[in-house]
Each structure stands twice: as C-alpha cells, then as structure tokens.
Design goal:
The structure is a single chain. The chain is mainly α. The longest helix has 25 residues. The radius of gyration is 14 Å and the shape is elongated. The chain starts with 7 loop residues before the first helix and ends with a helix.
C-alpha cells in the first residue's frame, strides 16, 4: 500500500523522536535494570512505536502494522 500525505516531514521528525526515545529507554534499562543490549528488541520496539505514533497522530495514515513492519519506507513513500 503506497501512501502520500502532507505530513511526511512531520512523520520523519516523529520517527527520529521515536528512535531517540527507544534508544534512551533501552540505555536506561541497561544501566539501571541490568538488562543486556538487545538490538532485535530495540528494532522491533522502534518499528512498533513509530507505527503507533503515526496511526494515532496522522489522520490519513492507513498502513497496517504488517505493511509497516515489512517496509516502513513504502508506507511513507520515501523510497
């Protein structure tokens, strides 16, 4: 599903915020809860939180989580 909307720039800024937030939280879990670095967990959490944010904040964002998980760039038509 290809999707174009006026808020692509907003989506990209939101995506950067999601990445930074998830990395910060994972860092804190490593430091304060003695968790191990888990790249797979971080990647999955970034994808889920980014999709959740777009789904809640952008009115015409209609991509399914599956489409987003497989290829997020197609959902926001960057590629």
């Amino acid at each position: 599903m290809l999707l174009v909307w006026e808020g692509q720039n907003k989506a990209l800024k939101g995506g950067v915020s999601v990445v930074l937030w998830v990395l910060w939280c994972h860092r804190n879990n490593i430091l304060f809860k003695q968790e191990m670095l888990d790249f797979d967990k971080v990647t999955k959490l970034i994808k889920f939180k980014a999709w959740s944010w777009l789904n809640a904040k952008v009115n015409n964002f209609k991509s399914s989580f599956f489409d987003w998980y497989v290829n997020p760039s197609i959902c926001i038509k960057i590629a």
